[in-house]
Give the backbone structure.
Amino acid sequence: MNKLRFYHNHILGIEGLEPQEITSLLNLSDNFVENNRSEHRKLNNLRGKTIVNLFFETSTRTRTSFELAGKNLGADVVNMQVSTSSISKGETLIDTAITLNAMNIDILIVRHPESGAVKLLSEKVNCSVINAGDGTHEHPTQALLDALTIRRRKGHLNGLTVAICGDILHSRVAHSNINLLNIMDANVRLIAPLTLLPTQTHMHGIEIFHDMFTGLVGVDIIMILRVQNERMYGNFIPSIREYFHFFGLDYEKLKLAKSDALIMHPGPINRGFELDSDLADDVEHSVIREQVEMGVAVRMACLSVLIKNFDHNKS
Ligand code: NCD
């Protein structure tokens, strides 16, 4: 039996986590995957606990999967819609925190368009906080579910070569994945046009490519990112056609990777922009649906460790 090693009160990012902490979370998630596939998947580890989903940005997968994760563990889950709450009336982040504190909730799950906002909130509330994506900074549970998907398919993370392709500049998914893959000793390649790469890709061991024709050669995993138009102020891309030609993944470019390479995408997909539509659904290569399934298990693992830690650290 593996001992659980994860002692944090919040999950705000992958940066700073230890390899054993990530491995612990993935091991626990593995158990939840099996549990969720069984007939008796409702558990009561979190009975009597209240979870609030506070999303300042739109979300389908992440919000729903946190909700399912909480409900599978027996918690009460409340979804706060920003458009119908007083946040749209101009209430500040701190006021929101004070309000939530008065309600004695146990875990707060936050998505916010500003990098750093979730950490700030975590310093003002008396409960555990999970970052469900803050600006372009981090989206830790996405990186964990990606790691779980890879580990279940390949058996390990270390030594694999993972190409992260596309809009890296605006992607919190890319940033969390780069952190996680580095910590777990995988090799990271970034493939992007110059306009969509951060100016500092300071991390040791990262290889940069400006075209897929060289970048994809021999890789084990291809992570395609969504082109995040909503975060672009200006012209980052000449045209959809040109982008797809150089940076969109299709069957032709896939041939450059290892024959058993896996295709991943965090969703939502812009079909025919960053990824060929048929390829996205081709289960011979694509594990995009599996990623969604893993998302529920990983979030159950995160919720259950935080409840344990918070109860323990309070007493
Ligand atoms: C990602 C996000 O919101 O950062 N989506 C997700 O959580 N599944 C990626 C994206 O929106 O492109």
Observations:
- The chain has a mean pLDDT of 92.
- The radius of gyration is 19 Å.
- The longest helix spans residues 288-314.
- Residues 88 and 147 are 35 Å apart (CA to CA).
